[in-house]
Amino acid sequence: MQEPKAFPFPTDHALRPSPLLSEARRAGPVRVQLDYGAPAWLVTSYEDARHVLSSPVFGRDCERAGIPADQVAGMTPVDPASRTLLTTDPPEHTRLRRFIFRTFTPRRVEDLRPGTQKIADRLLDAMVQDGPPADLVDVFGLALPVEVICDLLGVPAADRPRFTAWTDALLSTELTIEEVQASIGEMNAYLGALAAHRVRHPTDDLIGALVRERIEGDGLTEDEVNNLLRALLAAGHETTASQIPNFVFLLLRDGGYARLAADPGLVPAAVEELLRYVPLIAQGSMTRFVLEDVELSGVRLHAGDQVLIELAAANRDARAFPDAETMDLTRRDNPHIAFGHGMHRCVGAALARMELQVALATLATRLPGLRLAQPSDQVPWHMNRFVRRPRRLMVTW
To answer: Which residues, if any, are the signal sequence (predicted)?
Structure first.
Protein backbone atom coordinates (compact mmCIF):
# COMPACT_ATOMS: atom_id res chain seq x y z
CA MET A 1 0.00 0.00 0.00
CA GLN A 2 1.33 3.45 -0.96
CA GLU A 3 2.24 5.94 1.74
CA PRO A 4 -0.40 8.73 1.56
CA LYS A 5 0.71 12.14 0.29
CA ALA A 6 -0.65 15.29 1.97
CA PHE A 7 -3.52 16.78 -0.03
CA PRO A 8 -4.36 19.38 -1.36
CA PHE A 9 -1.10 19.73 -3.28
CA PRO A 10 0.66 23.14 -3.23
CA THR A 11 0.31 25.49 -6.19
CA ASP A 12 1.87 28.84 -7.11
CA HIS A 13 -1.41 30.49 -8.14
CA ALA A 14 -5.01 30.13 -7.07
CA LEU A 15 -6.23 29.31 -10.59
CA ARG A 16 -3.32 27.10 -11.67
CA PRO A 17 -3.54 23.38 -10.87
CA SER A 18 -0.59 22.07 -8.88
CA PRO A 19 2.22 20.60 -11.02
CA LEU A 20 2.08 17.58 -8.71
CA LEU A 21 -1.27 16.72 -10.31
CA SER A 22 0.46 16.16 -13.66
CA GLU A 23 2.89 13.79 -11.96
CA ALA A 24 0.00 11.96 -10.32
CA ARG A 25 -1.80 11.64 -13.67
CA ARG A 26 1.20 9.86 -15.15
CA ALA A 27 1.41 7.53 -12.13
CA GLY A 28 -2.26 6.54 -11.99
CA PRO A 29 -4.35 6.61 -8.78
CA VAL A 30 -2.24 7.73 -5.80
CA ARG A 31 -2.95 7.62 -2.07
CA VAL A 32 -3.58 10.97 -0.37
CA GLN A 33 -4.42 12.15 3.14
CA LEU A 34 -6.81 15.06 3.52
CA ASP A 35 -7.27 17.15 6.67
CA TYR A 36 -10.11 14.96 7.90
CA GLY A 37 -11.02 11.28 7.72
CA ALA A 38 -9.20 8.27 6.34
CA PRO A 39 -6.79 8.24 3.35
CA ALA A 40 -8.26 8.20 -0.16
CA TRP A 41 -7.19 7.33 -3.68
CA LEU A 42 -6.74 10.40 -5.89
CA VAL A 43 -7.85 9.99 -9.51
CA THR A 44 -6.43 12.49 -12.00
CA SER A 45 -6.78 11.12 -15.54
CA TYR A 46 -9.77 11.98 -17.74
CA GLU A 47 -10.61 8.36 -18.52
CA ASP A 48 -10.41 7.23 -14.89
CA ALA A 49 -12.40 10.25 -13.69
CA ARG A 50 -15.27 9.57 -16.10
CA HIS A 51 -15.27 5.92 -15.12
CA VAL A 52 -15.43 6.59 -11.38
CA LEU A 53 -18.11 9.24 -11.83
CA SER A 54 -20.36 6.96 -13.88
CA SER A 55 -19.78 3.47 -12.47
CA PRO A 56 -22.19 2.08 -9.84
CA VAL A 57 -19.14 0.50 -8.16
CA PHE A 58 -18.35 3.96 -6.74
CA GLY A 59 -21.10 5.32 -4.49
CA ARG A 60 -21.72 8.57 -2.62
CA ASP A 61 -23.55 7.18 0.43
CA CYS A 62 -20.99 6.52 3.18
CA GLU A 63 -23.50 4.55 5.26
CA ARG A 64 -24.16 2.21 2.36
CA ALA A 65 -20.40 1.70 2.07
CA GLY A 66 -20.10 1.03 5.82
CA ILE A 67 -17.88 4.06 6.44
CA PRO A 68 -18.50 6.16 9.60
CA ALA A 69 -19.13 9.84 8.88
CA ASP A 70 -16.05 10.90 10.87
CA GLN A 71 -13.87 8.68 8.67
CA VAL A 72 -15.00 10.19 5.35
CA ALA A 73 -12.02 11.80 3.59
CA GLY A 74 -12.68 15.52 3.43
CA MET A 75 -11.19 18.99 3.52
CA THR A 76 -13.67 20.37 6.07
CA PRO A 77 -15.03 18.85 9.29
CA VAL A 78 -18.58 18.86 7.88
CA ASP A 79 -19.47 17.83 4.33
CA PRO A 80 -21.34 20.87 2.90
CA ALA A 81 -23.41 18.49 0.77
CA SER A 82 -24.33 16.15 3.61
CA ARG A 83 -27.91 14.83 3.65
CA THR A 84 -28.65 16.03 0.10
CA LEU A 85 -29.12 14.31 -3.24
CA LEU A 86 -25.34 14.70 -3.72
CA THR A 87 -24.67 12.16 -0.97
CA THR A 88 -27.25 9.53 -1.89
CA ASP A 89 -27.31 6.59 -4.28
CA PRO A 90 -30.22 5.02 -6.18
CA PRO A 91 -33.04 4.48 -5.58
CA GLU A 92 -33.14 7.43 -3.12
CA HIS A 93 -30.99 9.60 -5.36
CA THR A 94 -33.21 8.90 -8.38
CA ARG A 95 -36.30 9.90 -6.42
CA LEU A 96 -34.79 13.17 -5.17
CA ARG A 97 -33.18 14.16 -8.45
CA ARG A 98 -36.46 13.75 -10.32
CA PHE A 99 -37.94 16.78 -8.55
CA ILE A 100 -34.96 19.03 -9.29
CA PHE A 101 -34.72 18.00 -12.95
CA ARG A 102 -38.20 19.36 -13.51
CA THR A 103 -36.90 22.82 -12.62
CA PHE A 104 -33.48 22.77 -14.27
CA THR A 105 -34.41 21.45 -17.70
CA PRO A 106 -32.56 23.27 -20.52
CA ARG A 107 -35.86 24.71 -21.76
CA ARG A 108 -36.77 26.08 -18.30
CA VAL A 109 -33.30 27.57 -17.94
CA GLU A 110 -33.59 29.31 -21.31
CA ASP A 111 -36.85 30.82 -20.07
CA LEU A 112 -34.78 32.38 -17.27
CA ARG A 113 -32.30 34.01 -19.67
CA PRO A 114 -34.27 37.26 -20.28
CA GLY A 115 -34.69 37.81 -16.53
CA THR A 116 -31.01 37.09 -15.95
CA GLN A 117 -30.13 39.58 -18.69
CA LYS A 118 -32.24 42.26 -16.97
CA ILE A 119 -30.42 41.64 -13.67
CA ALA A 120 -27.02 41.83 -15.40
CA ASP A 121 -27.95 45.06 -17.17
CA ARG A 122 -29.24 46.63 -13.97
CA LEU A 123 -26.10 45.72 -12.04
CA LEU A 124 -23.88 47.04 -14.83
CA ASP A 125 -25.94 50.25 -15.08
CA ALA A 126 -25.28 50.91 -11.40
CA MET A 127 -21.57 50.12 -11.77
CA VAL A 128 -21.18 52.45 -14.74
CA GLN A 129 -23.15 55.22 -13.03
CA ASP A 130 -20.86 55.07 -9.98
CA GLY A 131 -17.89 55.29 -12.30
CA PRO A 132 -14.48 53.62 -12.29
CA PRO A 133 -12.69 52.04 -10.64
CA ALA A 134 -15.13 49.36 -9.49
CA ASP A 135 -14.82 46.07 -7.64
CA LEU A 136 -16.25 43.62 -10.16
CA VAL A 137 -16.51 40.92 -7.49
CA ASP A 138 -18.75 42.92 -5.21
CA VAL A 139 -20.97 44.79 -7.66
CA PHE A 140 -21.35 42.15 -10.35
CA GLY A 141 -19.70 38.76 -9.82
CA LEU A 142 -21.29 37.98 -6.46
CA ALA A 143 -24.52 39.88 -6.98
CA LEU A 144 -25.67 38.30 -10.25
CA PRO A 145 -25.79 34.61 -9.17
CA VAL A 146 -27.32 35.48 -5.79
CA GLU A 147 -30.15 37.41 -7.40
CA VAL A 148 -30.78 34.71 -10.01
CA ILE A 149 -30.94 31.77 -7.60
CA CYS A 150 -32.95 33.70 -5.02
CA ASP A 151 -35.44 34.78 -7.69
CA LEU A 152 -35.72 31.17 -8.79
CA LEU A 153 -36.27 29.93 -5.25
CA GLY A 154 -38.44 32.81 -4.14
CA VAL A 155 -36.20 34.22 -1.39
CA PRO A 156 -37.16 37.80 -0.38
CA ALA A 157 -34.64 40.39 -1.57
CA ALA A 158 -34.07 41.77 1.93
CA ASP A 159 -32.93 38.35 3.18
CA ARG A 160 -30.42 37.59 0.42
CA PRO A 161 -27.28 38.93 2.16
CA ARG A 162 -27.77 36.29 4.87
CA PHE A 163 -27.16 33.52 2.38
CA THR A 164 -23.69 34.78 1.52
CA ALA A 165 -22.64 34.36 5.15
CA TRP A 166 -24.30 30.94 5.42
CA THR A 167 -22.72 29.54 2.26
CA ASP A 168 -19.31 30.94 3.26
CA ALA A 169 -19.66 29.11 6.57
CA LEU A 170 -20.59 25.84 4.84
CA LEU A 171 -17.35 25.93 2.82
CA SER A 172 -15.11 27.33 5.56
CA THR A 173 -11.95 25.62 6.76
CA GLU A 174 -11.53 28.12 9.60
CA LEU A 175 -14.74 27.61 11.58
CA THR A 176 -15.19 24.85 14.14
CA ILE A 177 -17.54 21.95 13.44
CA GLU A 178 -19.96 23.46 15.98
CA GLU A 179 -19.95 26.82 14.16
CA VAL A 180 -20.56 25.16 10.78
CA GLN A 181 -23.40 23.09 12.18
CA ALA A 182 -24.89 26.22 13.75
CA SER A 183 -24.93 27.93 10.34
CA ILE A 184 -26.58 24.87 8.79
CA GLY A 185 -29.17 24.96 11.55
CA GLU A 186 -29.89 28.66 10.96
CA MET A 187 -30.22 28.14 7.21
CA ASN A 188 -32.50 25.12 7.63
CA ALA A 189 -34.68 27.00 10.12
CA TYR A 190 -35.02 29.92 7.71
CA LEU A 191 -35.81 27.68 4.74
CA GLY A 192 -38.27 25.72 6.85
CA ALA A 193 -40.09 28.94 7.72
CA LEU A 194 -40.25 29.92 4.03
CA ALA A 195 -41.61 26.48 3.14
CA ALA A 196 -44.21 26.69 5.90
CA HIS A 197 -45.31 30.06 4.55
CA ARG A 198 -45.72 28.50 1.08
CA VAL A 199 -48.11 25.94 2.58
CA ARG A 200 -50.46 28.76 3.58
CA HIS A 201 -49.66 30.98 0.59
CA PRO A 202 -48.77 28.87 -2.50
CA THR A 203 -46.36 30.33 -5.06
CA ASP A 204 -44.92 29.31 -8.44
CA ASP A 205 -41.26 29.56 -7.37
CA LEU A 206 -39.05 26.56 -6.64
CA ILE A 207 -39.81 26.51 -2.92
CA GLY A 208 -43.50 26.56 -3.73
CA ALA A 209 -43.07 23.71 -6.23
CA LEU A 210 -41.21 21.52 -3.74
CA VAL A 211 -43.80 22.22 -1.05
CA ARG A 212 -46.54 21.12 -3.45
CA GLU A 213 -44.63 17.91 -4.12
CA ARG A 214 -44.47 17.29 -0.37
CA ILE A 215 -48.17 17.97 0.21
CA GLU A 216 -49.73 16.53 -2.93
CA GLY A 217 -47.22 13.81 -3.77
CA ASP A 218 -45.75 11.02 -1.71
CA GLY A 219 -42.06 11.52 -2.32
CA LEU A 220 -40.59 14.40 -0.27
CA THR A 221 -40.36 14.90 3.47
CA GLU A 222 -40.01 18.27 5.16
CA ASP A 223 -36.32 17.60 5.91
CA GLU A 224 -35.70 16.59 2.29
CA VAL A 225 -37.24 19.84 1.04
CA ASN A 226 -34.97 21.86 3.34
CA ASN A 227 -31.87 19.87 2.40
CA LEU A 228 -32.55 20.19 -1.33
CA LEU A 229 -33.02 23.94 -0.97
CA ARG A 230 -29.81 24.28 1.07
CA ALA A 231 -27.80 22.40 -1.55
CA LEU A 232 -29.28 24.48 -4.38
CA LEU A 233 -28.57 27.75 -2.60
CA ALA A 234 -24.96 26.85 -1.86
CA ALA A 235 -24.27 25.46 -5.33
CA GLY A 236 -26.24 28.14 -7.16
CA HIS A 237 -24.47 30.95 -5.38
CA GLU A 238 -20.86 30.17 -4.54
CA THR A 239 -19.59 28.30 -7.60
CA THR A 240 -20.95 30.67 -10.25
CA ALA A 241 -20.13 33.70 -8.12
CA SER A 242 -16.51 32.52 -8.05
CA GLN A 243 -16.23 31.68 -11.72
CA ILE A 244 -17.44 35.06 -13.03
CA PRO A 245 -14.51 37.02 -11.52
CA ASN A 246 -12.13 34.10 -12.17
CA PHE A 247 -13.00 34.10 -15.87
CA VAL A 248 -12.82 37.89 -16.19
CA PHE A 249 -9.46 37.99 -14.38
CA LEU A 250 -7.88 35.48 -16.78
CA LEU A 251 -9.46 37.10 -19.84
CA LEU A 252 -8.16 40.54 -18.86
CA ARG A 253 -4.74 39.28 -17.80
CA ASP A 254 -4.11 37.12 -20.86
CA GLY A 255 -5.77 39.18 -23.60
CA GLY A 256 -8.82 37.03 -24.22
CA TYR A 257 -11.26 39.76 -23.22
CA ALA A 258 -10.44 41.89 -26.27
CA ARG A 259 -11.25 38.90 -28.51
CA LEU A 260 -14.69 38.53 -26.92
CA ALA A 261 -15.33 42.27 -27.17
CA ALA A 262 -14.47 42.14 -30.88
CA ASP A 263 -16.59 39.03 -31.45
CA PRO A 264 -19.25 38.35 -28.74
CA GLY A 265 -20.32 35.30 -30.77
CA LEU A 266 -17.30 33.54 -29.25
CA VAL A 267 -18.84 33.67 -25.78
CA PRO A 268 -20.51 30.20 -25.70
CA ALA A 269 -17.31 28.41 -26.80
CA ALA A 270 -15.24 30.62 -24.50
CA VAL A 271 -17.40 29.71 -21.50
CA GLU A 272 -16.90 26.00 -22.20
CA GLU A 273 -13.13 26.44 -22.51
CA LEU A 274 -12.95 28.52 -19.35
CA LEU A 275 -14.95 25.86 -17.52
CA ARG A 276 -12.40 23.29 -18.68
CA TYR A 277 -9.39 25.45 -17.92
CA VAL A 278 -10.39 27.08 -14.62
CA PRO A 279 -11.08 24.65 -11.74
CA LEU A 280 -14.69 24.91 -10.56
CA ILE A 281 -13.58 23.35 -7.28
CA ALA A 282 -10.24 24.41 -5.83
CA GLN A 283 -8.86 20.87 -5.51
CA GLY A 284 -10.56 17.51 -5.41
CA SER A 285 -14.26 16.71 -5.48
CA MET A 286 -16.87 14.97 -3.38
CA THR A 287 -15.59 11.66 -2.06
CA ARG A 288 -16.72 8.39 -3.65
CA PHE A 289 -16.79 5.05 -1.82
CA VAL A 290 -15.72 1.75 -3.39
CA LEU A 291 -18.59 -0.73 -3.02
CA GLU A 292 -16.79 -3.80 -4.39
CA ASP A 293 -13.23 -4.71 -5.33
CA VAL A 294 -12.20 -3.16 -8.66
CA GLU A 295 -9.08 -2.39 -10.68
CA LEU A 296 -8.41 1.15 -11.91
CA SER A 297 -5.45 1.82 -14.21
CA GLY A 298 -3.59 -1.15 -12.82
CA VAL A 299 -4.27 -0.31 -9.15
CA ARG A 300 -6.41 -2.66 -7.09
CA LEU A 301 -9.07 -0.84 -5.06
CA HIS A 302 -10.96 -2.68 -2.34
CA ALA A 303 -14.51 -2.36 -1.02
CA GLY A 304 -14.48 0.33 1.67
CA ASP A 305 -11.72 2.37 0.00
CA GLN A 306 -12.41 6.04 -0.74
CA VAL A 307 -11.75 7.88 -4.00
CA LEU A 308 -11.29 11.59 -4.70
CA ILE A 309 -11.55 12.83 -8.31
CA GLU A 310 -9.39 15.78 -9.33
CA LEU A 311 -11.54 17.36 -12.04
CA ALA A 312 -9.03 20.09 -12.87
CA ALA A 313 -6.32 17.52 -13.63
CA ALA A 314 -8.72 15.40 -15.71
CA ASN A 315 -9.75 18.46 -17.72
CA ARG A 316 -6.09 19.10 -18.59
CA ASP A 317 -5.34 15.55 -19.67
CA ALA A 318 -3.59 15.82 -23.05
CA ARG A 319 -4.96 12.41 -24.02
CA ALA A 320 -8.45 13.95 -24.05
CA PHE A 321 -7.71 17.59 -24.96
CA PRO A 322 -5.07 18.54 -27.55
CA ASP A 323 -2.75 21.28 -26.27
CA ALA A 324 -4.51 20.87 -22.93
CA GLU A 325 -2.43 23.45 -21.03
CA THR A 326 -3.41 26.23 -23.44
CA MET A 327 -6.60 28.25 -22.98
CA ASP A 328 -8.12 28.21 -26.46
CA LEU A 329 -11.32 30.26 -26.57
CA THR A 330 -12.21 28.81 -29.99
CA ARG A 331 -11.91 25.15 -28.92
CA ARG A 332 -14.89 23.27 -30.33
CA ASP A 333 -14.48 19.62 -29.32
CA ASN A 334 -14.64 20.18 -25.57
CA PRO A 335 -16.13 17.28 -23.56
CA HIS A 336 -14.92 18.66 -20.22
CA ILE A 337 -16.23 17.35 -16.91
CA ALA A 338 -16.20 20.58 -14.93
CA PHE A 339 -19.75 19.82 -13.76
CA GLY A 340 -18.99 16.16 -13.13
CA HIS A 341 -20.34 13.20 -15.05
CA GLY A 342 -22.88 10.44 -14.58
CA MET A 343 -25.78 10.40 -12.14
CA HIS A 344 -24.26 13.00 -9.80
CA ARG A 345 -23.50 15.49 -12.55
CA CYS A 346 -24.44 18.98 -11.36
CA VAL A 347 -28.18 19.51 -11.83
CA GLY A 348 -27.56 23.25 -12.11
CA ALA A 349 -25.07 22.96 -15.00
CA ALA A 350 -27.45 24.50 -17.55
CA LEU A 351 -28.25 27.38 -15.19
CA ALA A 352 -24.55 28.05 -14.49
CA ARG A 353 -23.72 28.00 -18.21
CA MET A 354 -26.50 30.44 -18.97
CA GLU A 355 -25.44 32.85 -16.19
CA LEU A 356 -21.79 32.74 -17.27
CA GLN A 357 -22.75 33.37 -20.90
CA VAL A 358 -24.94 36.33 -19.94
CA ALA A 359 -22.27 37.76 -17.62
CA LEU A 360 -19.42 37.62 -20.15
CA ALA A 361 -21.51 38.71 -23.13
CA THR A 362 -22.95 41.67 -21.22
CA LEU A 363 -19.54 42.85 -20.03
CA ALA A 364 -17.84 42.37 -23.40
CA THR A 365 -20.64 44.12 -25.32
CA ARG A 366 -21.22 47.05 -22.99
CA LEU A 367 -17.68 47.59 -21.70
CA PRO A 368 -15.32 46.58 -24.53
CA GLY A 369 -12.53 48.67 -22.98
CA LEU A 370 -12.67 46.96 -19.57
CA ARG A 371 -9.24 46.45 -18.02
CA LEU A 372 -7.62 45.70 -14.69
CA ALA A 373 -7.12 48.75 -12.47
CA GLN A 374 -4.19 47.11 -10.64
CA PRO A 375 -1.32 44.80 -11.59
CA SER A 376 -2.56 41.22 -11.94
CA ASP A 377 -0.02 39.96 -9.38
CA GLN A 378 -1.45 42.33 -6.77
CA VAL A 379 -5.03 41.00 -6.97
CA PRO A 380 -5.93 39.62 -3.50
CA TRP A 381 -7.47 36.14 -3.39
CA HIS A 382 -10.23 34.57 -1.34
CA MET A 383 -9.39 30.90 -0.92
CA ASN A 384 -10.85 27.97 0.92
CA ARG A 385 -10.58 24.29 0.16
CA PHE A 386 -13.59 24.33 -2.19
CA VAL A 387 -13.59 27.57 -4.16
CA ARG A 388 -11.07 30.25 -5.04
CA ARG A 389 -11.74 33.68 -6.50
CA PRO A 390 -10.41 37.22 -6.30
CA ARG A 391 -11.30 38.85 -3.00
CA ARG A 392 -11.49 42.11 -4.97
CA LEU A 393 -11.10 42.63 -8.70
CA MET A 394 -10.66 46.34 -9.34
CA VAL A 395 -11.43 47.26 -12.94
CA THR A 396 -11.72 50.42 -15.00
CA TRP A 397 -13.00 51.22 -18.50
So the answer is: none
